[in-house]
Write a structure and sequence with these properties.
By secondary structure, this protein is mainly beta. It has one helix and ten strands, in the order ββαββββββββ. The strands form two sheets. Strands 1, 2, 3, 5, 6, 7, 8 and 9 form an eight-stranded antiparallel beta sheet that branches. Strands 4-10 form a two-stranded antiparallel ribbon.
Length: about 130
């Protein structure tokens, strides 16, 4: 067994065969491309568990076509906006201890007034981004 790790620094891949694989330190958006090279073979069943802290709204929308994304607010408050394929839009405020699910194919973005931390469990295969 290895020592404890900080999720904010070392994300975890949940893979085939119920595996949990610690990841190298997160160092920016390029990290995701290397992650896909490491675990892309797990396809839509692979999940990335990550933690991010935000002091402002997200810079872009994102959408995960291959599966649900679980968003758990662990500190602060964030407003999650979802745009569904039928054009319907919903917004919800998440406080510490609350969660929401971004269904597959739903574009989403968050606004943060001060500071918020969230844990994400993401089916990342085919993730897309678009400008705010």
């Amino acid at each position: 067994m290895t020592g404890p790790r900080r999720l904010a620094d070392s994300f975890v891949h949940l893979g085939l065969g119920a595996t949990a694989v610690p990841q190298p330190p997160f160092d920016g958006m390029e990290w995701y491309e290397a992650y896909d090279e490491r675990h892309g073979a797990d396809g839509r069943e692979g999940r990335l568990v990550s933690q991010h802290t935000f002091e402002e709204g997200w810079p872009s929308w994102e959408m995960h076509p291959a599966g649900d994304e679980l968003v758990i607010c662990t500190e602060g408050e964030m407003v999650l906006h979802q745009e569904f394929p039928d054009g319907r839009c919903e917004s919800m405020t998440l406080h510490a201890g609350e969660y929401a699910i971004n269904p597959p194919g739903v574009w989403h973005i968050a606004d943060v007034a001060e500071r918020a931390t969230a844990i994400f469990v993401t089916a990342g295969e085919g993730t897309q981004h678009r400008p705010r």
